[in-house]
Amino acid sequence: EEITIWLHEGIYNLSGTVTLDGCKDSLSIPVYVYPLPTADIKALPEICAKDTATVSIISESDDVEWLYPNDYIEVNKKTMRYVPNGDISYQVVVKSKEGCVGTRTFEQKVLQPFEVKILAKSAVCSGHKVPLSTESPNIESVKWYANGKHFAFQKETDYTVYEPMKFIVESTDINGCHNKDSVMVDTLPRPELKISGDFEVCKGEVAQLVASGAEEYSWSENGVNKSENSHVSTLMDKDRTTLILEGWLQGCKSEKTS
Hints:
The chain is an all-beta fold. The protein is built from no helices and 25 strands.
């Protein structure tokens, strides 16, 4: 006859009696019930996406095995590293020297970093400052880089550009997770102004000057506007006079005197 008995940890003495043809006999045997091996999994309860989790097994037994995940990087028998893509349940099996098997699971939450976005103009005039800022209310701190060189920690800053520049911002959000964004800012050329015409005339005559190299022009003399065209005429009623020329090309300004 076969029976099944569920026993807790401990030492038991099982006895029984059998009868055959009116004859009885008794039997007694000791039963040892060993405890299941125990284990704890040590890891952070939360981790940022793309970060590497270090997970360790805390157990007196050295016979341990990771059931999930199975594509981890082993540090040693009881410690591994893993980069989870989402929330994960780590699973481990532990065996005792008596052959008993125990399992353990550990839930780890994976936090997705808050998005960070750079707000900036796509192009500015060479030698001008480009305003830079980030758009995200959940960002705690930032680091700015211009063509790979760090230059600021503020969420709003500016940078003087003389050539096309790649700006990168690295952010840390309220959960301690990191993210980054980048933007390319081009430079617009400032006009190369040229002036031709009458640089020497007799007193009382009219000097005619013509500007080139820009799309828009403005001439002034002693703070008084003289012309909004590429050419200007001025009466030379004194020995010497100075004209200031301002020119704009794609919104960028240059200045020249004559």
